[in-house]
Write a structure and sequence with these properties.
This protein is α/β, with parallel strands linked by helices. Helices cover about 35% and strands about 10% of the residues. The chain has a single domain, classed as 3-Layer(aba) Sandwich (Rossmann fold), CATH 3.40.50. The strands form 2 sheets. A 7-stranded parallel β-sheet has the order 5-4-3-6-7-8-9, sandwiched between helices. Helix 1 packs parallel to helix 2, helix 3 packs parallel to helix 4 and helix 4 runs parallel beside helix 6. The radius of gyration is 18 Å and the shape is globular. It starts with a strand and ends in a 10-residue tail after the last strand.
């Protein structure tokens, strides 16, 4: 993993930085997030599969795309407008010998969600795994300062999109043996976050969505699971918080540091492949040691 500075207590810190614009960009981040750890060996766990990954241009989504490619999958990645980051991810996927389709658009738009699925199936020949990962968050000190516009926007991006994409993907997932849906939730769904009220609420909704949809689709052989990351070093962090919070981000968890996207990607590989064939409606927790009541 990249070098980071440490405090006298051994807790790792990051340089002060802030982008103050969402969606965040990965290129300006210091240090650069790690998408896949050096020495990770693919084992064809997803050979011949096709995955659609929202928020796939950077952060955890990029890690999922690169891990899936190393395991043999072709991927389509959805992103809003971060063209440079998306092209970087495409190059990483293609370096693994796999195809990568770039789809720019707003996952809060139901019509675009249908289009993204249709274009993936047309270009890559089907769909085996839907990874609902795109999200936005905005720090707000009080519920009184939380505007209706922001509230609706956060829910539209973070949870409505999952309904839209799952509906559009289902006819295609039904055609593939071992099809899966994987949703990105968060540790905030379990412990709350006073300054991320709307974001935390959507992440709680994602857990209920995952558990409910898993029961609905279990009889069809489509497994639905989730991953609940803790503090992970992604563009969402400098794009959400002021420089002092960015510098200390993740230092308060038991492992004393924020996680890397590379420490989340294997969770998605596990849930997408046959290794997790007896798991549905479950949540994995790469969170640096935070104890959560699941």
């Amino acid at each position: 993993m990249p070098n980071k500075s440490k405090t006298s207590s051994g807790r790792q810190t990051r340089p002060r930085q802030s982008q103050r614009r969402q969606p965040g960009r990965e290129r300006p981040m210091e240090p650069a997030p790690e998408p896949i750890r050096e020495g990770y060996r693919g084992a064809d766990k997803l050979k011949g599969r096709v995955a659609l990954i929202t928020g796939g241009d950077s952060g955890i989504g990029r890690s999922v795309a690169v891990h899936f490619a190393r395991e043999g999958a072709d991927v389509a990645i959805v992103y809003l407008e971060e063209d440079d980051d998306a092209r970087d991810t495409k190059a990483m996927v293609e370096a693994e010998g796999r195809r990568c389709l770039l789809l720019a658009g707003d996952v809060g738009d139901e019509a675009f969600c249908r289009e993204a699925v249709a274009r993936t199936v047309e270009a890559l020949g089907g769909l085996d795994c839907l990874v609902n990962n795109a999200a936005e968050q905005h720090e707000t000190r009080s519920i009184e300062e939380l505007s209706t516009e922001q509230l609706e926007r956060t829910f539209r991006t973070n949870i409505f999109s999952m309904f839209h994409l799952a509906r559009a993907a289902l006819p295609h997932l039904r055609e593939r043996e071992g099809a899966t849906i994987i949703n990105s939730t968060s540790v905030t769904a379990y412990r709350g976050s006073p300054h991320l009220l709307d974001y935390s609420a959507t992440k709680g909704a994602i857990i209920a969505f995952t558990r409910s949809l898993s029961g609905q689709l279990a009889g069809e052989g489509i497994r639905v699971n989730a991953v609940a990351p803790g503090p992970i070093w992604t563009p969402l962090i400098p794009a959400s918080f002021p420089p002092d919070k960015v510098a200390s981000f993740g230092a308060d968890v038991p492992l004393g540091r924020p996680g890397e996207p590379s420490e989340c990607g294997p969770c998605y590989v596990f849930l997408a492949c046959a290794d997790s064939s007896y798991m549905t409606g479950q949540v994995l927790h790469p969170n640096g040691g935070e104890i959560v009541n699941t």
